[in-house]
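Assemble and predict.
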Amino acid sequence: SQTIHQWPATLVQPVGSPLSLECTVEGTSNPNLYWYRQAAGRGLQLLFYSIGIDQISSEVPQNLSASRPQDRQFILSSKKLLLSDSGFYLCAWSWQGYYGYTFGSGTRLTVV
Amino acid sequence: AQSVTQPDIHITVSEGASLELRCNYSYGATPYLFWYVQSPGQGLQLLLKYFSGDTLVQGIKGFEAEFKRSQSSFNLRKPSVHWSDAAEYFCAVGERFGNEKLTFGTGTRLTIIP
């Protein structure tokens, strides 16, 4: 069966510090991968999606970047965090051609 | 581009009562439609989805949703809620011939009272 792992679960970082959130999928190959951010009262905002290694599309220009160094690994990064980067970050995967997203358990990021 | 509206930010229902959560979408054709549930501090779990065919869709945990093309709606229903149904519910839409990205509504928080 397929599983998705996301870590860390919570993170408190000072403004201006770097960020690296990792997401990995097991039990499948060549998945579509997604990073969403959830802010209170604003639903889920798609940040990045990837259909393959080194194939990443950005939905919202911002302080964040994403990379996919391996088929089932998706990393969300920032060189310098802003207060506005605080939120709940969710990774998800789906099979290509199928919309049934499976979400990770999320990372609560607080920038102080 | 598609969009999703969930007009109710917060709904309170008594345990055992029926539930209907509203979802309206904007899209040029018939989209793919989804309902997800999120417990506090957790990721999202798929409740049900509509791709085509029967407009009444059955999901997990006793939920169902009905696609109404004329109203551009995909409302979620449950005949009798349980305290464990307290959570946040998200409606989502995907382009039928798109790139498998989902657009989510802002969510409806469901509170269950005894």
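The interface with chain B takes residues 6, 32, 34, 36, 41-44, 46, 49, 51, 59, 90, 92, 94, 96-106, 108 of chain A (CB under 8 Å).
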